[in-house]
Structures are given as C-alpha cells and as structure tokens.
Amino acid sequence: MVDLKFTPQIEILSAENSPRRRHWSDADKIRVVEESHRGHRQVSATARRHGISRSLLTVWRQQYRNGELANASAPAFVPVQMTSEMDTSSRQSAPDVQLEILLRNGRRLLVPSSVDPGALARLLPILEGK
Questions:
Q1: How far apart are CA 128 and CA 130, in angstroms?
Q2: What are phi and psi of 112, to 5 degrees?
Q3: Which of 33, 41, 60, 114 has the fewest CB within 10 Å, making it most exposed?
Q4: Do residues 101 and 108 make contact, with C-beta atoms less than 8 angstroms apart?
Q5: Residues 5, 7, 9: CA angle, nearest 5 degrees
Q6: What is the pLDDT of residue 124?
Q7: What CA dihedral angle connects 67, 104, 101 and 60, to 10 degrees?
C-alpha cells in the first residue's frame, strides 16, 4: 500500500551554494605561522582561530621552514664564490670565529673561520648525502 500523504523533503545541494576555497597570500600565511610559533602547543588553537585545518597549518609551517613562503623582511642569503687566490695575511689577523652552515637536509654544521676551504668543499657533499 502506498502512502500518498507523506512526501519526504529533499534538499538539492549544488556547488554554487558551497563556499569557495579561500586564497591566502604569503604574507597572511607567514603571519599565521608566526602566530602558531608563539607559546606552547599553539598549532591547533591557531588553526581553529583562523578557520583552517591543523594539517594545512602544518604544511605552511614546513614551507616557512624551507623558505618557500616569500617574505621581504626575512634575511636573504647571498651566493658566495670561493677562489684559491686568498690573501692569507689578512685572514690570519682576524679573530677565529665559528661559522654556522645550514645544509639542505636540515643539519647544522659549525666550523671555525680558519677551516680550509678545500677540505670544507670535500666535506659538504658527504654531509648532505650526495
């Protein structure tokens, strides 16, 4: 037997009714990432506050660490070219300081400024795993 009095309500959903993806500029991403670095256990709270998922914020934090987010105020790295024609007299008078070298694989290398450039050039590919 068919019940003709009961008519189920149907709701039609379309793509036009759903909110579109938001586009975040690099400056906005950097601001959110830097906010998530303040304090202890702030990733989830920051993501909720800005209406994004924790996994998206984690991706942004990784991009921030790798330098993939453009930031004009961030320190820039300048390419350095080493030549064999170095003036050793001025080099010896300078105080011996430690240089910190950040490798692409995330490792840090601390070397004295008096390190032999040739030895360092042979060592870096080994440490980077090439």
A1: 6
A2: -70, 155
A3: 41
A4: yes
A5: 155
A6: 84
A7: 30
